[in-house]
């Protein structure tokens, strides 16, 4: 069937009507192939007319010429219990030729489930009127899967919400960036978001959507909070929902579970990117030994065609919890050092060993040598070796974040910063610019430290630094592994900060390939300084930088032996002993440079 437009009439309209259909099943889909080509070929749309509803529903649209080609359209009809009719409307504008055509119209999976004589088993449900046998997990999911509504009878309204009368017992999170919006029909922006809800399949029904247009920015988040639920074992509690992620700039939808009220919880599920113009069902099986809550989070992409929709959210096998979740303090102590020190006679320039009360010189604190029997002089220092396993930072910290209060930390979500990561938590496509495996274990479960470039803007920097290191030895060096792969990698620097003076020791910029690369930086003898890893963000999110297995090698300062040096050792001017093999090797092994003196 085709339309040839060759007259000069400014506005021409053509209608192609279907026969009237009585009803459809819950999985009904309409597909057809269309051709819309020409300089003024104009728009085309498919509309749904349901008996008893005055308002029609737009199911599909084509706004302009789409080239000299046949294209496939897939329309999700779903469960339509009333008689309906479809209309393909074509509007042509202007004074140029254009051709529109349609072919191969197909209805799939539109029949109701067939009746059966037997429906047995704990996982099956026998529909009362149609006698169909369906999966019991489809019961009370706000979808008429039986065709007679019997699978939606006697359901607890507190465990389901189709948003026809508000948010039910779901709530908007007050700690996110903006709220989900309840709406009917299409979202305001073309080529993104749903055209209709999932419950009724028409423009009359309501659903929630996340608006991605300005003033909302990339990585802004909207979070929806479920009611609280009692503990559930072995996945007995089932969460069902339908989501819609259509648009070139759709970013991410994720679901979290938490048992503490002022945390974001742990990730249960996520979906990333454009999933097509359709509602998709998702089922999650939830286990918890404590009362819990579900969080549904939508994240804005880098443009206005990134709307996300939610509808028909229900729970099966779950019971509501009549209480509140506990909270956890947002402030933590920097060290585990006791508040009171043991009795001692130490001066202000000395460090008090926590267990014994022994006094040592302050220069012996954080020097990579344990001088106290309990090692308390090295407890609040950077560790000699750090592989970031068990999610430990090993004493490394971020000054920019340390200066924030507990409430400020909540709003650092979009800040360009260092954070722990692993391949198992990457979203699809992120492995193109972030390591899929760590260096320590070479697995997706291994942890590493990385700067996520999907946060921040071009030129932003993030520092992670050691506490002050009192003194190092002449051979001290730092060895680490770095991963810098991506089309817009910025740079990674190793800096030395002494007081207000900062010097650059090592730098690398641009993509270095899809592997971990070893780096070695000589430190030598230094005192009262900090080592800083500084990463600079590139022009886009395709530029994460990661480090792993940071090692301070041979960094403890020289130790006075308190004895005469042997015949195989050289006696430094400061009375330290070093092997004679280290003489005149261009390294200040003695710490006073006497091993490099021309008079030796």
UniProtKB/TrEMBL annotation:
Residues 1-112, 159-320, 384-557 form the MAM domain. Disulfide bonds join 140-155, 366-381, 565-577, 572-590. Keywords: Disulfide bond, Repeat. Transmembrane segments: none annotated. GO terms for cellular component: membrane. Pfam families: Ldl_recept_a, MAM. SUPFAM superfamilies: Concanavalin A-like lectins/glucanases, LDL receptor-like module. InterPro entries: ConA-like_dom_sf, LDL_receptor-like_sf, LDLR_class-A_CS, LDrepeatLR_classA_rpt, MAM_dom, MAM_domain-containing. This is MALR1 protein. It comes from Crotophaga sulcirostris (Groove-billed ani).
């Amino acid at each position: 069937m085709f339309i040839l437009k060759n007259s000069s009439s400014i506005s021409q309209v053509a209608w192609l009507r279907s026969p009237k259909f009585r009803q459809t099943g819950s999985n009904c889909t309409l597909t057809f192939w269309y051709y819309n080509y020409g300089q003024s070929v104009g728009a085309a749309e498919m509309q749904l007319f349901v008996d008893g509803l005055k308002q029609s529903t737009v199911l599909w649209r084509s706004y302009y010429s789409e080239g000299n080609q046949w294209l496939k359209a897939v329309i999700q009809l779903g469960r339509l219990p009333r008689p309906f009719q479809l209309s393909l409307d074509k509007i042509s504008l202007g004074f140029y030729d254009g051709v529109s055509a349609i072919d191969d119209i197909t209805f799939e999976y539109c029949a109701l489930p067939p009746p059966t004589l037997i429906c047995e088993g704990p996982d099956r449900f026998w529909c009362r009127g149609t006698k169909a046998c369906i999966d019991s997990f489809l019961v009370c999911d706000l979808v008429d899967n039986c065709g007679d509504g019997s699978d939606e009878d006697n359901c607890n309204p507190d465990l389901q919400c189709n948003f026809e009368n508000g948010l039910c017992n779901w709530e908007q999170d007050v700690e996110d960036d903006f709220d989900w919006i309840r709406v009917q029909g299409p979202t305001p922006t073309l080529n993104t978001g749903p055209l209709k809800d999932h419950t009724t399949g028409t423009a009359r029904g309501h659903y929630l959507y996340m608006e991605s247009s300005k003033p909302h920015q990339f990585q802004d988040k909207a979070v929806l909070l479920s009611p609280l639920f009692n503990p559930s074992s072995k996945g007995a509690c089932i969460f069902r929902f339908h989501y819609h992620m259509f648009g070139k700039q759709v970013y991410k939808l994720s679901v979290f579970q938490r048992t503490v009220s002022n945390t974001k919880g742990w990730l249960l599920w996520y979906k990333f990117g454009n999933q097509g113009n359709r509602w998709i069902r998702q089922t999650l099986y939830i286990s918890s030994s404590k009362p819990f809550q579900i969080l549904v989070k939508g994240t804005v992409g880098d443009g206005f065609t990134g709307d996300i929709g939610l509808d028909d959210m229900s729970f099966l096998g779950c019971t509501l919890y009549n209480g509140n979740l506990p909270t956890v303090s947002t402030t933590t102590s920097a060290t585990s050092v006791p508040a009171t020190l043991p009795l001692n006679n130490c001066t202000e320039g000395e460090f008090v060993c926590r267990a014994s009360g022994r006094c040592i010189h302050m220069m012996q604190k954080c020097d990579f040598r344990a001088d106290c029997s309990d090692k308390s002089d090295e407890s609040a220092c950077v560790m000699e070796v750090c592989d970031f396993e068990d999610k430990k930072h090993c004493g490394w910290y971020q000054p920019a974040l340390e200066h924030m209060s507990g409430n400020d930390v909540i709003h650092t979500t979009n800040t360009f910063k260092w954070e722990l990561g692993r391949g198992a938590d990457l979203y699809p496509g992120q492995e193109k610019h972030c390591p899929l495996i760590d260096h320590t274990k070479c697995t997706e479960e291994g942890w590493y430290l990385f700067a996520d470039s999907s946060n921040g803007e071009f030129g932003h920097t993030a520092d992670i630094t050691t506490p002050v290191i009192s003194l190092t030895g002449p051979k001290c060096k730092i060895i680490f592994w770095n991963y810098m792969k991506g089309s817009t990698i910025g740079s990674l620097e190793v800096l030395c900060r002494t007081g207000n003076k900062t010097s650059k020791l090592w730098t690398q910029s641009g993509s270095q390939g899809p592997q971990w690369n070893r780096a070695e930086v000589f430190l030598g003898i230094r005192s009262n300084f900090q080592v800083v890893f500084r990463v600079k963000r590139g022009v886009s999110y395709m530029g994460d930088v990661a480090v792993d297995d940071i090692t301070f090698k041979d960094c403890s300062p020289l130790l006075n032996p308190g004895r005469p040096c042997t015949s195989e050792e050289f006696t430094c001017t400061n009375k330290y002993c070093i092997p004679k093999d280290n003489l005149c090797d261009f390294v200040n092994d003695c710490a006073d440079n006497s091993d490099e003196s021309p008079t030796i």
